[in-house]
Amino acid sequence: MGQRITLPKVAQMKEASQRIVCVTAYDYTFAQLVDRAGVDIILVGDSLGMVVQGHETTLPVTLDDMIYHTTAVVRGSQRSMVICDFPFGICQSPKEMVLAAAVRIMKESGCDGVKIEGGEVVADTIRYLTRQQIPVVAHVGLTPQSVKFFGGFKVQGKDKPEADKILVDALAVEAAGAFAVVLEGIPPILASEITEKLSIPTIGIGAGVECDGQVLVIYDLLGLNDDFKPKFVKQYMHGADLINTALKQFTKEVREGVFPGPDQQ
Ligand code: KIV
Description:
Layout: H1 7-15, E1 20-24, H2 28-36, E2 41-44, H3 48-51, H4 63-76, E3 81-85, H5 95-109, E4 113-117, H6 123-131, E5 136-141, H7 147-150, H8 160-176, E6 180-184, H9 188-197, E7 202-205, E8 213-216, H10 218-221, H11 239-255
Parallel strand pairs: 1-2, 1-8, 2-3, 3-4, 4-5, 5-6, 6-7, 7-8
Helix pairs in contact: 2-4, 4-5, 6-8, 8-9
The chain binds 3-methyl-2-oxobutanoic acid (KIV).
């Protein structure tokens, strides 16, 4: 069994201008596929609330949900670093409870760190956790847990005051000890400025090509959801069509008594 990607390795990748590849996964089988493809970081995102559980937002996801999925992903991977999202509500709690949640996540799932949405406002929490040796990835810009506050999943930082605030957020989470920061749904020019100013790596989603790395939701990049194709997503295959064809063929063969054939008996 090889060693997983470590924190110092991620820092070195920024120094060496080597782009960081991050993909979400939520279960054992996908974790195996992602790990074997050589992806650096597997994010068990709370996007699972939408793409696995079918909610409209990530807000209903619980700590137990995150631990359940992260445990399966850790079992399915050997080389990738595995990061677990803090679900909505944890960072709004007293800091001792936040630490207890982080310890539960890391102890029960075996993952390598946690991701926390928010900037300046969660900087003290990030500082508290990193002093207790909990590795933290921060997440600024379009933070999906703030969807009700933003009034939708809208690009953030389009005007100067908003852009300045996002830069302040990114600097604050870096100063607090985050080892990387996700930049989501912000103008590429702002992402580029933040990437230049920060010494920790930036990992972009809908934030242009100048970030130190990129992350996508696995179901989006595999084209599994025909109803969701925002501009920042590239479908590397049309998974929904392929799966539909396979399932139709299976249905036909079962109905016609062709499956199981001689090879399957
Ligand atoms: O929950 C998630 O999957 C995420 C990524 C899209 C960055 O936060």
